[in-house]
Design goal:
- It is a single chain.
- The protein is mainly beta.
- Helices cover 0% and strands 33% of the residues.
- It contains no helices and 6 strands.
- A two-stranded antiparallel ribbon has the order 1-2.
- The N and C termini lie far apart (123 Å).
Length: 136
Amino acid sequence: MSASADVSLTFDNDLGVDLSGIPSSFSIDVTHLPKIEVDLDPITLNPITLNPITIEPLDLSVRIKEIPSIRTHVPAYFTLGLSILGFELVCARLCGEAQVITEPYEPNPCEHCGEPTRQPQPVPVPTPAPTPAVVK
């Protein structure tokens, strides 16, 4: 099996990268693959026999009856971007904390979403200005 590839790159804008030392043609040649042999003796499990008692091989199964109620905080750092030849063109980074919650969800005081609810405050009623006294 033999394969070859010719690569030529041209850019209209100067990226400040010198590509002169990178070869432009490559060839890969695989002429022989070695033979791989794995030799294992057969494994057998025979029943154990005590004079009147025969014990068969054990069949064991494990299951989860209930998923435990937990709230786990997991640090999260995500990067989504686009780069060409190692130059980062666009990148958005998000960091914070994710949670794995398997318990009935009751938000902590800092986890409430939506509009904050405020207790109604009494609105002061303006008092009417005193009327000037008329002297007769």
